[in-house]
Design brief:
The complex is a heterodimer of chains A (200) and B (384).
Chain A: H1 5-13, E1 19-23, H2 29-38, E2 41-46, H3 49-58, E3 62-64, E4 79-85, H4 94-104, E5 105-113, H5 118-127, H6 151-160, E6 163-171, H7 179-183, H8 185-188, E7 191-198
Parallel strand pairs in A: 1-2, 1-4, 2-3, 4-5
Antiparallel strand pairs in A: 5-7, 6-7
Chain B: E1 17-21, E2 25-26, E3 32-33, E4 36-43, E5 53-57, E6 84-85, E7 90-91, E8 96-100, E9 115-116, E10 121-122, H1 132-146, E11 151-157, H2 159-170, E12 175-181, H3 189-203, H4 221-235, H5 238-244, H6 263-278, H7 281-293, H8 304-308, E13 314-320, H9 328-340, E14 345-350, H10 364-381
Parallel strand pairs in B: 5-8, 5-11, 6-7, 11-12, 12-13, 13-14
Antiparallel strand pairs in B: 1-4, 2-3, 4-8, 9-10
The chains are: A alpha/beta (200), B alpha/beta (384).
Amino acid sequence: MSLRTDQALIAEWIKPGSRVLDLGCGDGTLMAHLQQHQEVKGYGLEIDEENIVECIHKGVDVIQTDLDKGLSEFNKDTFDYVIMTQTLQAIRYPDKLLKEMTRVGREAIVTFPNMGHWKNRIQLALAGHMPKSKTLPYEWYNTPNIHLCTLSDFENLCATNNIEILDRATVDHEHQSSLGMKLFPNLLGEIAIYRFRQND
Amino acid sequence: MQEGTRPVDNVGLVEPQTAHFSDTLALASGSELHSFDIVYETYGELNKERTNAILICHALSGDHHVAGYHTPQDKKPGWWDNAIGPNKAIDTNRFFVVSPNNIGGCSGSTGPLSKNPKTDKPYGPDFPLVTVKDWVKTQAMLADQLGIDVWAVIIGGSLGGMQCLEWSIAYPDRLKHTFVIAAAPKLSTQNIAFNEVARQAIRSDQNFNEGHYYETDDKPELGLMLARMLGHITYLSDDALDEKFGRELRDGEIKFGYDAEFQIESYLRHQGKSFVGRFDANSYLLLTKVLDYFDPAGDTEGSLAEAMAPATAEFLVISFSSDWRFSPERSQEIVSALLDADKCVSYIEIQSKQGHDSFLMPIPRYHQVMSTALDRIAEGLGIA
């Protein structure tokens, strides 16, 4: 059970012994890792039955949930961190869910594919078609990714909603990082990782 | 069933056992039972450490005969044979499964049919009303007698799921895990309304005689049959009924009369009649009351989260998409309270067509969820 680099980065950001809620937790890999190595407690939320069985197999507490219905089950500041990896772009109302994440958690962490990556820009600008890549493998008509954005789009939304960004990192589709990505994240980063919180 | 044709994953022939309790049992109602019996079955072997025991709590019309056959001639195995046995979801190669029949029923444990020691006649309507709390208390007494301090898992569907909740509140130290299946934290108004119609069907039967009908040959069969027919409709989904019977006619044409013309009519009548042969009307009345009264949040000013606070077990809550008697929303109420109370809980809604009865069906995903959870539990116990 090995972590993707974005997950490994998240694991580094999370303090041992924290309470964590993982939205769209998939097969529970990240939660299982956090439970085993960082004494983290919490739940995964997932909609897919096969993934839920996998979570149960790994000993991750998982609640079948449709994230489009919000997080009303949970009270304010119930968790130290609310995480969502590679799911934001498939959410019906990402702005509302981001607010929900910062309500339920003292801090939130998201990762999403960066639409501003240079390969995506070239495909649209020069080839004239919707971008496809290893991180965005779908055709425009069957993609679950209905709300793609760039790093600047995301940061603008955070500014509008008075969300303070605490940390930012980018990686490529092999989940490696580089100096170039640090200098030009919106151009060279394929996957964006943010840690943030709501300012009152 | 023919000898020699028994499937290899079956627990085989089983014999019910009886545990006698001669102490007075104080009931939640304030009444007392001076002594009582619990009939139960067991499958598999209790390990040396006594850590591999699973308790099965039955639903309204269920009993202790959960798996296997009583005689080689039995046509049907126990009511949850598809889930319990060697290499099945609840694997008797690894776990020791105990299934008691609750008091107040009519399958062998003390109930309205039993002799009242004071009068030497059946209790009948004088059998005191019992509650889920009382049941769980008697199940704990049975556990004492069997030498089981802690259940590895307590599993129950429907009214059985309510017993799981009560166990986790009343005896938090005596169970490690519980599977709460197709349950609800309390009955809805509509649920109680259905129960009341069932009760009135029985009580208005001209043979009911205020419950004193054991001495005569005329039992309130019609009333009990109606009660079961009504109940049965609520156990199935609209789609399941439609798929099974549609508007199919028994004789292929409308006869303009009140005999059973549609297949669904004859099916319901058959279900009602066969139930009358195996169930007692006084027990049925009592059991519907057990359901009505269950409300753990009633002790904590309506807060289920607060009611669940003492629990230490790990919960697996399972609901079924087509269940409208105890819908997925009712299971989510339980999950919500458990999350509020900061308990270990997992939840899944199984896609199914068969309504509330889905919890008795061998739905692959459902059994996979249970067996996956049990694999992990077995691993933790070192019995995998």
